[in-house]
Amino acid sequence: MGSQSTAKTIFLLISMVGWLIVGAALMYLSPFIADLVVSSDLTHLWMTNLSRGGYNPMLAWVGGGTALVATVLGNIIWYQRFDGKL
Length: 86
Hints:
Layout: H1 6-37, H2 41-52, H3 57-81
C-alpha cells in the first residue's frame, strides 16, 4: 500500500468533519426548505410544531454556511500550496 504524510492524513480528517457539518446543516434545514418549496398546509403545520419545540433554521444557515466556506477555502489552499493541483 502507498503511504501518505501525517499532514495529509490530518487534512483529510479535518476536511471530512467539515463536510459532515455541512451535511448535518442541510438535514437540519430540510423542513424549512420543504416549507419554502412546497408551501402547503402540512409543511406550515410541520414548521409551526417545530418552532414550538425551539427549531431555529438560522443555526443551520450560519453554522453550515461557515463550515462550507471554511472547508472549501481549506481545500483550495491545501491543493494549491501543498498538493500542486488546481
